[in-house]
Amino acid sequence: MLKSFWLLSALVFLAIASAPLQGGSPQQTGKPTPAPALTPPPAVAPPPPPVQTKNPVKPTAESQAKAKSIYQIDCALCHGDNGNGKTDLAASMELTMDDWTDPKTLANKQDWELFSIIRNGKGKMPPEDPGRANDTEVWNLIIYIRAFSKAPAAAPPPPAQ
Ligand code: HEC
Fold it and tell me: Does the Cβ of 77 fall within 6 Å of ligand 1?
């Protein structure tokens, strides 16, 4: 797309630049031919660096089991085993914790925002070091904590006898 744009611009530029060499064409009126405008090509903003906005991870039973164990060691002491944030530590540190068991809590937060908070920390939340959870593990943690608001899947009804 961009390539053909530049090709087209180059052709147009060549056409303008070579016009005076052909001498006065029959269509030309008495007006002096204006010098070909040597406008520089429009400045094209460099494309932004690629940002991972969507969770690139497809959860597997194994990766979610790993996420659960990381969560229980590094996160549950503040956020709670079930993600409701009602923990003794949060209370004693006077932390304002979100309740992730409510589906509305994280509904408007994008995965990349959560990723950035987990990786960099926020306020009194400590950053998660890459040595403790690599990027893939953090993306899996996000899937894990989002699942706190999902009711456990209802057991399928027993087959009719
Ligand atoms: C020391 C307590 C503490 C620990 C440990 C902790 N958090 Fe947090 N977390 C917080 C606090 C406090 C906030 C609110 C930060 C703010 O908005 O100022 C927060 C916010 C978040 C948020 C942003 C969404 C929200 O509810 O505000 C995510 C996501 C999150 N934590 C995930 C994690 C994960 C994953 C871990 C483990 C790797 C973890 N946290 C460990 C205290 C903690």
Answer: yes
